[in-house]
Protein 1
Amino acid sequence: NAGVTQTPKFRVLKTGQSMTLLCAQDMNHEYMYWYRQDPGMGLRLIHYSVGEGTTAKGEVPDGYNVSRLKKQNFLLGLESAAPSQTSVYFCASSWNLRSKGGDKYNEQFFGPGTRLTVL
Amino acid sequence: AQSVTQLGSHVSVSEGALVLLRCNYSSSVPPYLFWYVQYPNQGLQLLLKYTTGATLVKGINGFEAEFKKSETSFHLTKPSAHMSDAAEYFCAVSERGYNKLIFGAGTRLAVHP
């Protein structure tokens, strides 16, 4: 199993350009998440999804959109990139605790990250 | 709202020395607690977690953490540091029964010979 994969690994954008980051997981997880990681701030949740066709806002959603058309994929879009969006982006996935049952399933699995620079 | 505080953004130890990384949380109800490790240019990997039961939790690579409700703490320790332990460590919490994580700012561990 590949686990959680992200494409691309690196990207440089100019201010105002748009792009889409792709996250894929092969563990049949219901939940998927997008985080951004900035120095001294840990990881902050941008958006998340509890199932195919559903998305919700996290802590820092402004300037981003997401879609989950298939259970295994979660897309993060930047419509008009800004320098403040320069960051490392991580995708994660997990089981739905309420359907899976048992705390041993309580874990998020992370992808390798995408380093985005906006000039 | 829950929050996580990691004391010390950088910790440096000698190889073979004790590793102690501090984590305190704010929550009126004991949450689920996690430690994740991030090696350079990689994603996060779960080290250990506390959900219920024994308050001393053992994880991978010789790390362990103890949940202390009275101190609202979940400090990470390892008796003897190895060069390969150099990484960034994140403490995280989630409400019981929910998947969403709140992360601390992280502590970068350096291990020198």
Protein 2
Amino acid sequence: AQSVTQLDSHVSVSEGTPVLLRCNYSSSYSPSLFWYVQHPNKGLQLLLKYTSAATLVKGINGFEAEFKKSETSFHLTKPSAHMSDAAEYFCVVTLSLSSGSARQLTFGSGTQLTVLP
Amino acid sequence: GAVVSQHPSWVICKSGTSVKIECRSLDFQATTMFWYRQFPKQSLMLMATSNEGSKATYEQGVEKDKFLINHASLTLSTLTVTSAHPEDSSFYICSALAGSGAKNIQYFGAGTRLSVL
């Protein structure tokens, strides 16, 4: 079984300060991990993904995440928050199944990021 | 990245009527698509996995006769909410699986907000 825990339901930062959104996962096998962002009344946009290559993954809009197997974590960071970063962020885990298999995603509960002026 | 189009973005209907939501992969073929439901301020809940040319696989607790899924082509899946009631009001999001093996990624539509009066 696999699961993902987002440790903070809400995070508030001031514009220009660093962002840290925490995510821990549980998986019996080698996981693939993703961060998605959802703006109000919008679908989900892929920020970045980890699929067993480099442990430090760089995504869009200046976000990055580091896969730490020893800590079973995949925290999302950004050096300097922008007002447009305010949104809901989902950490997602999925199993690395055999080639060609459809994979189901397991979503974390989400973290609402507020950016204060 | 790949583009998934979902239509309509917002629909209001009377109780007892049926509503069809379309999900299209615009620049790739998707053997597999997924349908999710999202309640306010909550994470996404997988409803069903839609496979082209075969019956959809529904998650436990999801009524297949209530939520009809058709995946008639490699670029189109539809979700029909039959005899809709106010409790069916929700945000429905589809995704399409692009790529193969460990490199496949789900790309999401922008979602459909269903309001049943």
Protein 3
Amino acid sequence: EVQLVQSGAEVKKPGESLKISCKAYGYSFTTYWIGWVRQMPGKGLELMGVIYPGDSDTRYSPSFRGQVTISADKSISTAFLQWSSLKASDTAMYYCARRASSREYFESLGQGTLVTVSS
Amino acid sequence: DIVLTQSPATLSLSPGERATLSCGASRDVSSSYLAWYQQKPGLAPRLLIYDASTRATGTPDRFTGSGSGTDFTLTISRLEPEDFAVYYCQQYVSSPITFGQGTRLEIK
């Protein structure tokens, strides 16, 4: 069974850095693209970017390029999303999601990581 | 970017009724590269339909996706209590991948 298990909720101050994780179980981690999806409070879904863990090929949606860094460590079947300097507007739920093998929809999502940025 | 507009924003119906949710695209979504997701409160979205009309594993057959080009529909033939949730469409024909703003299906 495919499972994506995300790290726990975080509370941070503006300007702090953060790295959240998504560990994959039940499939070959290196052969499926993994994406990160943002959901701001009470809002819809936004794709931030995707990574192919097999070769770390990473693609960012234009709105998120330069704002976050997506990475993966295939030795531990884990993808990461990180910020170098958080803003209050980064407060949101973040989901990792496994893309289908031949199409760019998301077959399976993690449980979500709530990030709260507040002074 | 392809903008997806979902309507209505909120749909109020009773269990047993038929629900029709719409997703309109600002440009042609060729090859019907459109998916539908269901999100219940406090939970992650779940894939329901892909390629406009193919049910994902575990999707009940009361859910039907249809449409092509710029107009797509998700129909729930007979609402069950567990179907009341928010539904999102997503296009994957061109980058950036985009989602609609969602339709909230609430109990009347």
